[in-house]
Specification:
It is built from 2 helices and 6 strands, in the order ββββαβαβ. It is α+β, with helices and mostly antiparallel strands. The chain has one domain. Strand 2 and strand 3 form a beta hairpin.
């Protein structure tokens, strides 16, 4: 897994999409504000969905090593709490 700087903020509508496994082992893709997301059978399908939804911006996809649950209420932790270093791991 390689690290890249935070995604550029000058692209209108660009939001981070988090991917990872939930407590049942399913793959989750979730936009940072909970605007869209889903459950997937594979990592590849979660990434494919994230790229489709975010306009093909791989720099805005973040794979988490911790468990992530699909959240329709948009209550994901703020990005600053997840990545104190300011650098994001990218799938």
């Amino acid at each position: 897994m390689k690290s890249l700087a935070l995604p550029p903020r000058n692209i209108p509508g660009l939001a981070l999409v988090f991917i990872g496994r939930n407590s049942h082992g399913q793959w989750v893709a979730q936009e940072q504000n909970g605007l869209y997301g889903g459950l997937f059978v594979s990592r590849a399908e979660a990434i494919k969905y994230a790229l489709f939804e975010n306009g093909h911006h791989p720099e805005a996809i973040v794979e988490l090593s911790r468990t992530i649950e699909l959240d329709a209420d948009g209550r994901l932790a703020p990005v600053g709490l997840l990545f104190a270093s300011g650098r994001l791991p990218v799938a």
